[in-house]
Amino acid sequence: MARTHYIAGNWKMNTSKAEAVKLASDLVSALKGKTNKFMIGVPFVYLDAVSQVVKGSNIILAAQDCAATANGAHTGEVSTEMLKDLGVQCVILGHSERRHEIGESDELINKKVRRALNEGLEVDLCIGELLADREAGNAEQVCAFQLSADLAGVTEEQMKRVTIAYEPVWAIGTGKTATPEDAEAIHKFVRGYIAKLYNQKVADEVIIQYGGSMKASNAPELLAQPDIDGGLIGGASLKAETFVPICEC
Ligand code: 13P
């Protein structure tokens, strides 16, 4: 099954407005004509400016979160309506930094996933275990729980707009990368679990990205694994010099 490689940058809470616009325009030039799928996850406050830059390019504009509800009295929240108004096409949801720093539950993540999909957006759903889970031999169990809880109520048709990002929490921003073999083992498990939740066709088609200290030096080995279809990149996505080489892998 040939799946498109999907390389995404999660800028997290970084860059100034000027840096965001410059980085986006450098990426538009560097990735022009390339056939992989590309996405950048931009801080809310810069989405409008970056949207003007990536419009008409082959780079998908993503937000790093969205509200679980429609417009209304929800102070500080940003709705899917507002995001679509700015040209946003995708939302990163379930990131470990939101799960563990902000305390987002799988129930809330599921509401956001369904809201984004019902509103026609793509979702990049992040899952992954803590170091303690891995050391206790529970990595697969944690990923299975997150998948079934976060995708509850998502239809087979909607799964065409869902990407899974496996991000072992102990590998995020730490310089520690899962070995290609360890990452592949979980990716294979995740694909098998999607087959159980849906069917083999959905599992064969779903793109599963790896995230956690991915850079140009380790990306080729990771992306060579049969079930690793791309990457969700944090630190190395903040400069065109470090992100573009991964996109070209
Ligand atoms: P790093 O690439 O900085 O480890 O971050 C990975 C990540 O969390 C992407 O969402």
Q: How would you describe this protein?
A:
Homodimer. Involved in the gluconeogenesis. Catalyzes stereospecifically the conversion of dihydroxyacetone phosphate (DHAP) to D-glyceraldehyde-3-phosphate (G3P). 41% of the residues lie in helices and 16% in strands. With 249 residues, it is an alpha/beta fold. The protein has a single domain, classed as TIM Barrel, CATH 3.20.20. It has an eight-stranded parallel beta barrel, surrounded by six helices. α1 (17-31) links the parallel β1 and β2. The longest helix has 18 residues, at 180-197. 1,3-dihydroxyacetonephosphate (13P) is lined by residues 10, 95, 167, 172-173, 211-214, 232-236.
Question: What key attributes describe this structure?
Answer:
249 residues, alpha/beta, TIM Barrel, TrioseP_Isoase_bac/euk
Could you give a quick summary of the protein structure above?
With 249 residues, the protein is of the alpha/beta class. It contains eleven helices and eight strands.
Topology (SSEs and partners):
Elements: E1 6-10, H1 17-31, E2 37-42, H2 47-54, E3 59-63, H3 80-85, E4 90-93, H4 96-102, H5 106-118, E5 122-127, H6 131-135, H7 139-150, E6 162-166, H8 180-197, H9 200-205, E7 207-210, H10 219-223, E8 230-233, H11 240-247
Parallel strand pairs: 1-2, 1-8, 2-3, 3-4, 4-5, 5-6, 6-7, 7-8
Helix pairs in contact: 1-2, 7-8
The structure holds 1,3-dihydroxyacetonephosphate.
